[in-house]
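Researcher: Good morning. I'm working through a list of sequences from a screen, and I'd like to move beyond sequence-only analysis. For each chain I'm collecting a predicted structure so we can compare shapes side by side. This is the next one on the list. No need for commentary yet; just the structure.
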Amino acid sequence: MTPPYADADFLSIGSLLSPEELAEYESVRSFFQSEIRPAATAYWNRAEFPYELLPKLANQNITRFGPNTGHLLNGLVHMEIARADTSISTLFGVHHELFTRSIQDLGSEEQIARFVPDLLALRKIGGFALTEPDHGSDISRALETSARWEGDGWILNGEKRWIGNGTNGDYLLVWARDVADGQIKGFVVERGTPGFTATAIENKIALRAVQNAHIRFQNVRVPESNRLPGATGFKAANQLLLNSRVWVGWQSVGQQLAAFDVARKYAMTRNQFGRPIASFQLVQEPLSRILGNASMSLALMIQLARMQTTGGLHMEQAAMAKASCTARMRESVALARNILGGNGITTEYEIAKIFADAEAIYAYEGSYEVNSLIVGRAVTGISAF
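Model: Good morning. Structure tokens for this chain:
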């Protein structure tokens, strides 16, 4: 007999969705579990971008999800993508939640018409270039990449680092400081533009299928038609970062559910001392704790989706969710890896990949410490940075 919570749905997610939404959610979950998850580890092992999987994503019309389909359903879809594979989740999230949303929210009507159809069809892939080699957490104050108006266009100079989809993306949204007025502005740079070079960051222990890049701009000329009119000042970027922190919160839930899936299956099938290790108290307790961590994280993210729906979500709340959920995630994946014992340190059993990828989720979109300080500032009125 299959246990009632074998799929880890302890909070009855289906009851929160309409019948139509539930059908879409279950279809997406089935697709990612049957088509993406079985293939993902091989790409991860080879540190190879999964080009062959993009048409499958496109055929699923996965880009249809977003605020228009409901923040809760959109979040649950991102959760299920991460549950299947965090590299694919990050590739898609950077493309969809950061680049495509930037064009939709900050672009002109002409730019939306020019870029968005190919982005939604996944015929073109975008990236988001904000972080620099010497500036991550302090990027809003210390961004060094420069933009200078010359003739009939802009000249960009500088460097960016850890840019997802940086080597294989067709477009990058590059944030640079206008030397004339000191404002940060956003520019769409197309791959192959003279002076633009992207070098893949190698030897990563996480997100190995994502092509993070170190990017250099040496007198890169960008036409005025590729400057996003709404991307003026860091406030515009900050709104996108708020949404991306929410997305990463959903990723952390999916990561915990992935760890639970592997640990539970292993515990049910691994026999020691003549019986499944799932019958041992010292295995049932960590399974329970993983599920508890995942369920608490999920409940928090459901509340954030409600706040997004009413327009009442602020950065400090997104920061709390990102910090809290990723901290719970870190414990969950470690517990799951331990349940597999020695088999937990090889990607053959998937959990080593899940364990390693969790470190990237914990680190990006604002470190745990920085997000905690954003919350601390909100509750004390005193900035620690």
